[in-house]
Design goal:
352 residues, alpha/beta, Isopropylmalate Dehydrogenase, Rossmann fold, 2 domains, ten-stranded mixed beta sheet, two-stranded antiparallel sheet, 14 strands, cytoplasm, oxidoreductase, 3-isopropylmalate dehydrogenase activity
């Protein structure tokens, strides 16, 4: 039975990198059919909305969604509700995507590309599990007021016990399949809301006696990620902290252009996208790194379709290409061969 994939190329470099991921999927001759739609700035230009009804219908029909990236300075002056990023938040909410999995794996060939010493990051393999439906992103905006002669912005941070419990189970299950270590990150010493986060994680812990649960404040977690990142196995945290920490972890691997992600609902349907942004400054130049998007496609095959062998084949092909010394501009270093977006995609296909 064919699987339907809703493809959302998005903005900036999105169409270029998504094309390479589709090329790799096609090379595997899998029973997949594609339906293309618009999201973000491209959707705004065409329809006036960042998440138009046509895209909503296509995403709901699909078994999984493959996304490039959205946003760019072109749309920064629009009202907030009409900006490209609202399309991304909209599709996450519409599809019930509550769990964002962001693996940060350092390929041995890229150890010297990291800004940290090789001995600090060699062998790095962590997963950040980020909650997507609560926190300040889905709080109640109260706008900007003038108090005592100066502007003051207000927004609420909202966590629901059910949401924390749901993401906690995903994190514990993820840790159980890996190194059985889970670090929960909050800011309970200052933000009373996140005390609820810690309480619920502690309540869940007895259900997973084989997993060791620890807690860390977010500022310390940020420091520890650059001091001794290999102490972590699985990190679970909220929407805002996860957004920041996952980008930090991505740079430990040498380039954010290498990091995939998956956002899942309770049935395993997911939206798959690279961790990086739309990079409008290099859009159309054919120099963007497509590997994060290609690896996101591999995550799609594994998590939404259950095609483990096909997913592993893609991941092995990426490792082969890196071992051959091929590098896009973001990970290039002396002694390697500089290639463009399409050439990197072709190399992965050849390695398959």
């Amino acid at each position: 039975m064919k699987k339907r994939v809703c493809v959302l190329p998005g903005d900036g470099i999105g169409p270029e990198i998504v094309a390479e991921a589709v090329k790799v999927l096609d090379a595997l001759a899998l029973p997949i059919e594609y339906e293309y739609a618009l999201l973000g700035g491209a959707a705004i230009d065409a329809t006036g909305e960042p998440y138009p009804e046509e895209t909503r219908s296509a995403a709901r029909r699909a078994d999984a969604v493959l996304l490039g990236a959205v946003g760019g300075p072109k749309w920064d002056e629009l009202p907030r509700a009409q900006r490209p990023e609202r399309g991304l938040l909209g599709i996450r909410k519409d599809l019930g995507l509550f769990a964002n999995l962001r693996p940060a794996v350092l390929f041995p060939e890229l150890a010297s590309a990291s800004t940290l010493k090789p001995e600090v990051v060699s062998g790095l393999d962590i997963v950040i599990v980020r909650e997507l439906t609560g926190d300040i992103y889905f709080g109640e905006p109260r706008g900007i007021e003038v108090r005592d002669g100066e502007r003051v912005g207000f927004n609420t941070m909202i966590y629901r016990e059910s949401e924390i419990r749901r993401i906690g189970r995903v994190a514990f299950e993820t840790a159980r399949r890996r190194g059985k270590k889970l670090c929960s990150v909050d800011k309970m010493n200052v933000l009373e809301t996140t005390q609820l986060w810690r309480d619920v994680m502690n309540e869940l812990a007895p259900e997973y006696p084989d997993v060791t649960l620890t807690h860390m404040l977010v500022d310390n977690a940020a420091m520890q990620l650059v001091r001794a990142p290999k102490q972590f196995d699985v990190i679970v945290t909220g929407n805002m902290f996860g957004d920041i920490l996952s980008d930090e972890a991505a740079m430990l691997t040498g380039s954010i252009g290498m990091l995939p992600s998956a956002s899942l609902d309770e049935q395993g349907k997911g939206l798959y996208e690279p961790c990086h942004g739309s990079a409008p400054d290099i859009a159309g130049q054919g120099v963007a790194n497509p590997l994060a998007t290609i690896l996101s496609a591999a995550m799609m095959l594994r998590h939404s379709f259950g095609w483990e062998d096909a997913a592993a084949r893609i991941e092995r092909a990426v490792r082969t290409v890196l071992a051959q010394g091929l590098r896009t501009r973001d990970i290039f270093e002396p002694g390697t061969r500089l290639v463009g977006t399409a050439e990197m995609g072709d190399a992965v296909v050849a390695a398959l």
